[in-house]
Amino acid sequence: MASERTLQRYLINLARCHDIYARKVAAIGHTGFPDVFLACKGRVIMVELKSPTGKGRLSRKQEREIERLRDENINVYVIDSYDEADEVIKNLADA
After folding, report:
1. pTM for this one?
2. Long-range contacts, stretch 79-85, CB < 8 angstroms, 24+ apart
3. Could you give the domains of the chain?
């Protein structure tokens, strides 16, 4: 069965195949920050990953953090499927 970790590896590997800078984010001591940083052609986006099982939900801290980032004009995506990962990478690579 697919997991959030598997989806994360898929997203990062797919990004690198498209020459997109991709890093897993470790916001030590700060919960709620998105999981993955992506940058390409001067664009930066953050991605919060949820389990492809459909059971993952945003915590209140995650919701607040995403809202704050979006207030700063940072694009933040919340994804829980390989199709959504494909779409994020395609949109970033084609921009």
Report:
1. 0.91
2. 79/7, 79/11, 79/47, 79/48, 79/49, 79/50, 80/7, 80/49, 80/50, 80/51, 80/52, 80/54, 80/56, 81/7, 81/52, 82/2, 82/7, 82/10, 82/52, 85/7, 85/10, 85/11, 85/14
3. 4-94 (3.40.1350.10)
Residue that the structure tokens 């994020």 belong to: 88
pLDDT at position 31 = 85
**Is the pLDDT reported for residue 95 higher than 80?**
no
Tokens (6 digits) for 65: 């953090």
